[in-house]
Design brief:
heterodimer, A: alpha+beta, Glutaredoxin, five-stranded mixed sheet, 4 helices, B: alpha/beta, Rossmann fold, Ubiquitin-like (UB roll), 5 domains, about 15% strand
C-alpha cells in the first residue's frame, strides 16, 4: 500500500465482505424454506437468487429464509421487501421466476404482478 | 460463484475458546458441508462479544441472531433449522437472567442495550485476524487523517476530547503527548502498556485479542503526534492468544505498508516491536515496565523525571494503556467534540469494565462515564443471582476499593470514585453479596499485592507484610483490640511513603473496607464472629434436626467422616473432625445444614 487511494480501494473491497453484518434497512429477499418449500424446490430457487445477485454484482441485498407460513400449496414463496415499500410475496417461484424477480423487481423496481400472492404494507 | 448469504461469527475470545468455541466451529463447518451449503455461509472468528458467562456464543448474520452456550452437537441444529429452513433455534437463544425473557437478536439483549461501544466497536463484527475487515470498518482511516494534520493539531484534538488514561491514574492523554512532543531528546518512543495484572481484569486482553489493529493504529497516531518512529507493545506472556493475534496483526500491517518506511506516501515512518513480560504485577507500573523492556529487573524508580521526559533508554517516551490507545482512532475520525459529548464533566467517553463476581451476566462491558453502579449491576449485569442482597462492589482491583450499597446511585467517574475511596483503575468490577466477608476480601487483595511487591522500597515490602499479618490474625479469630487503628496507621504510611503506584495504592482495599464495613472488622476482633459466615476459623456447620431427612448425602460427601448418622435418622456433624470445606452445606438437598458462628456453638458447650 503506497497511498491513501490504495487504502480506499482496499476498504471498498473489504466492505463488501462484511456488509452482511452491519447493514440495516436494505432490501431483503426472504425465501420460504419450510419442509414444504424445500419439497417444492426452494433450495434451487435460493441458489438461483444468490447466483443472479452475484452475476449482477448486487451487494446491498440481504437474502434470508423463513419457515412455513401455512400457504404450502403456493411454495416456493419468495418475499421482497424494499425500504419504504410494501412487502411483496411471490408464489411458485421456480429458479426461472427467481432470476426474473431479481432482474425486474430488485434491479428495475418493477413488480411482476402476475406472480404476486400478497402485498403487505408497513413492514 | 454464488454470493455468501449468511455469516456465522463465532466468538473467539479466550473465555469462549476455553469453553469450547473451536470444537463448535469445527462441528459447524462439518454440518455446513454435510448440508451442502458451505459456499453460501461464511464462518468467521470474532473478538470477545463480552458475554463471557454465556460462552461459547455465535452470531448469525444478516439477522443478527445470538446463540449461547453452544455445544458441538448444536451445530447441526443451527445449520438444518436456521441456515437451511430459516427457523430460529429457540432453545439456543439468550434468556434474561431474572426476567426469563428470550431475546433473539444480539443488539436487543439487556446486556448490550445499555452499553456504549467505542473501544469494543468491532467486537462481534469483524474477524480480528483479518486486516481487511478492520479496514472495512474505517480502519486506518484515522491514521490517514492524522497524517494530513500537523502533530500539534493531533495533540490538540486529543486534549480537547478530554480523553484520560484508562490504565488507572486517569492522566489526560493529550497533555502527556504534549509533554513528550516538547521534550528534548531523540529518538522518542511510544509504549503500549498491555501488562494487565489485576486479578479478575481482562479488558486489555480482550481488546488485543479482538481488535489488535485498533490499538496499533492508536499507537501510530501517538507516534506521529510526539515525533516518534518506534513503538513497543509490552504484553504479558500469559496472554498467548493476544500475543498470537498481535503478531499476526503487526505482520499484516507491515505487509500492507501501514507499518514501516514512508507510510501512505506521507514520509512518516514508524515501526513496532512486541515485548513479552513475565507477568510481574509491578511491571504494569510505567518505570518498572521501561526497566523490563530495557532488559533490567522490573523495578520502579522515583518520578520525576517522568517517562515523557526521560523514559525508555533515557529518551522521551509516551506510555499509554491498551484501552486508551483503542480510543484514539475514533476520536480522530469523529472529532474531539463527539467524544467530549459522552460522559461527565471531567471524565469523557466510555470505560470498559470486566464484570465479575455475584452478578448474573459476567463479562466485558463498555459503558459511558456517568452511569451509576446500580445501572451497571442491575441492568447491564442483570442483577444478583439467587435473590441475594447486594453488599458492595469492588472497583479497581488490588489498587481500588469497595463501594457499598448506599452509594449505588453515584454517577461513576474518576473523581466520584476517588472520593468514595475506590478508583476507576483498569476496570475490574467485582460484585459482592451478603455471603462475602469484607475483611477476607481485603485480605485477599492485600495478599496479592504483598506477594507482588518488588521489594525495592521498605514501606511496601515490610509495610504490606505487617498489614497482611494483622489481617490474617483477624480472619483467624485472633484479632486484638487496636488492630483496626494499626491497619489505618500503617496503610496511610505505606500510601505516603512507597516508591511507586503499587505500594501507594496497596492499602486501598483495606482502608476502604474499614471505612464502610468497620462493624465487620469489629465483629471479627471483639466477638470472634464473621457476619458473612465466610471465614472458616469463625464458623461451624451444624444440622438442623427438623429439616434433616437422614438421606446420608452429607455423610457420603464429607471427606473426613465428620458428617455422620444412620440411614433415615437425623445426622450430625462432629465439630472436632470437621474441616469446614462446606461440601455438605452445598450438597444437602433439604437445606438442613446451616452455617453458624463458632462462638455460639462453643457457648452452648
Amino acid at each position: 500500500m503506497k497511498s491513501l487511494e490504495d487504502l480506499k480501494r482496499i476498504r471498498e473491497q473489504a466492505q463488501a465482505q462484511i456488509r452482511i453484518r452491519t447493514q440495516e434497512g436494505n432490501t431483503k429477499i426472504i425465501v420460504g424454506m419450510g419442509t414444504c418449500g424445500i419439497a417444492a424446490g426452494a433450495r434451487d430457487t435460493l441458489m438461483a437468487i444468490l447466483d443472479e445477485l452475484a452475476k449482477r454484482n448486487i451487494q446491498d441485498v440481504v437474502v434470508t429464509q423463513t419457515g412455513c407460513i401455512g400457504l404450502c400449496e403456493y411454495e416456493p414463496l419468495v418475499s421482497v421487501v424494499k425500504p419504504g415499500q410494501p412487502k411483496i410475496m411471490y408464489m411458485k417461484v421456480n429458479p426461472e421466476r427467481a432470476r426474473q424477480i431479481v432482474a425486474s423487481h430488485i434491479v428495475n423496481d418493477q413488480i411482476i404482478n402476475e406472480w404476486v400472492l400478497s402485498r403487505e404494507e408497513g413492514v | 460463484m454464488a454470493i455468501v448469504r449468511a455469516n456465522v461469527l463465532v466468538c473467539a475470545g479466550s473465555a469462549c475458546v476455553s469453553s469450547g468455541a473451536y470444537s463448535f466451529k469445527d462441528a459447524l463447518i462439518k454440518a455446513l458441508e454435510k448440508a451442502g451449503i458451505r459456499e453460501e455461509v461464511n464462518v468467521v472468528d470474532t473478538g470477545c462479544v463480552g458475554t463471557c458467562a454465556l460462552g461459547p456464543v455465535a452470531i448469525v448474520y444478516p439477522e443478527g441472531i445470538f446463540y449461547v452456550h453452544l455445544k458441538p452437537e448444536d451445530a447441526e441444529t443451527i445449520v438444518n433449522e436456521h441456515l437451511l429452513k430459516g427457523r430460529i433455534v429457540n432453545k439456543l437463544l439468550y434468556q434474561g437472567p431474572i426476567s426469563k425473557e428470550v431475546f433473539p437478536s444480539l443488539s436487543e439483549i439487556d446486556f448490550i442495550v445499555k452499553q456504549k461501544r467505542i473501544v469494543l466497536r468491532n467486537m462481534g463484527i469483524i474477524d480480528p485476524e483479518s486486516i481487511e475487515e478492520y479496514i472495512a470498518r474505517e480502519g486506518y482511516q484515522a491514521l490517514a487523517k492524522a497524517l494530513t494534520m500537523t502533530p500539534e493539531e493531533v495533540i490538540d484534538t486529543i486534549k480537547r476530547s478530554g480523553l484520560r488514561g484508562r490504565g488507572g491514574a486517569g492522566f489526560p492523554t493529550g497533555v502527556k503527548w504534549e509533554f513528550a512532543r516538547k521534550a528534548k531528546g531523540s529518538p522518542k518512543y511510544v509504549i503500549c502498556n498491555g501488562d494487565e495484572g489485576d486479578p479478575g481484569a481482562f479488558m486489555d486482553r480482550s481488546v488485543l485479542e479482538g481488535d489488535p489493529h485498533s490499538v496499533i493504529e492508536g499507537m501510530m497516531i501517538a507516534g506521529y503526534a510526539i515525533g516518534a518512529s518506534k513503538g513497543f507493545f509490552y504484553v504479558r506472556a500469559e496472554y498467548p492468544l493476544a500475543i498470537e493475534r498481535l503478531k499476526l496483526a503487526l505482520a499484516q500491517a507491515r505487509e500492507y505498508g501501514l507499518i514501516g518506511e514512508n507510510i501512505l506516501g506521507t514520509g512518516f515512518s514508524f515501526d513496532i516491536e512486541l515485548r513479552m513480560g513475565s507477568g510481574a504485577f509491578v511491571c504494569g507500573e510505567e518505570t518498572a515496565l521501561i526497566a523490563s523492556i530495557e532488559g533490567h529487573r522490573g523495578e520502579p524508580r522515583p518520578r520525576p523525571p517522568y517517562p515523557a521526559n526521560k523514559g525508555l533508554w533515557e529518551n522521551p517516551t509516551v506510555i499509554n494503556n491498551v484501552e486508551t490507545l483503542a480510543n484514539i482512532a475514533p476520536i480522530i475520525l469523529n472529532g474531539a467534540e463527539w467524544f467530549s459529548s459522552i460522559g461527565t464533566d471531567k471524565s469523557k467517553g466510555t470505560k470498559v469494565f470486566a464484570l465479575a463476581g455475584k452478578v448474573a451476566n459476567t463479562g466485558l462491558i463498555e459503558v459511558p462515564f456517568g452511569i451509576t453502579l446500580r445501572e451497571i449491576i442491575f441492568e447491564v449485569g442483570g442483577g444478583i443471582p439467587s435473590g441475594k442482597k447486594f453488599k458492595a462492589a469492588q472497583l479497581g482491583g488490588p489498587s481500588g476499593g469497595c463501594i457499598p450499597a448506599e452509594h449505588l446511585d453515584t454517577p461513576l467517574d474518576y473523581e466520584s470514585l476517588k472520593e468514595l475511596g475506590a478508583i476507576v483503575g483498569s476496570g475490574g468490577l467485582i460484585v459482592m453479596d451478603e455471603d462475602n466477608c469484607m475483611v477476607d476480601v481485603a485480605r485477599f487483595f492485600l495478599e496479592f499485592t504483598q506477594s507482588e511487591s518488588c521489594g525495592k522500597c521498605p514501606p511496601c515490602r515490610v509495610g504490606t507484610r505487617k498489614m497482611l499479618d494483622i489481617l490474617e490474625r483477624i480472619v483467624n479469630g485472633e484479632g486484638e483490640e487496636g488492630d483496626i487503628e494499626r491497619l489505618i496507621e500503617l496503610g496511610e504510611e505505606i500510601k505516603r511513603d512507597s516508591l511507586c503506584g503499587l505500594g501507594q495504592t496497596a492499602p486501598n482495599p483495606v482502608l476502604s473496607t474499614i471505612r464502610y464495613f468497620r462493624d465487620e472488622y469489629e465483629a471479627h476482633i471483639k466477638e470472634k464472629r464473621c457476619p458473612a459466615k465466610s471465614c472458616r476459623a469463625l464458623i461451624a456447620f451444624q444440622v438442623i434436626p427438623d429439616k434433616c431427612k437422614g438421606c446420608g448425602i452429607c455423610a457420603r460427601v464429607c471427606p473426613v467422616g465428620a458428617a455422620q448418622g444412620k440411614p433415615r435418622e437425623i445426622h450430625s456433624i462432629d465439630k472436632d473432625l470437621c474441616i469446614k470445606c462446606g461440601d455438605c452445606f452445598a450438597r444437602c438437598p433439604f437445606g438442613a445444614i446451616e452455617k453458624v458462628d463458632l462462638v455460639s456453638v462453643l457457648e452452648k458447650v
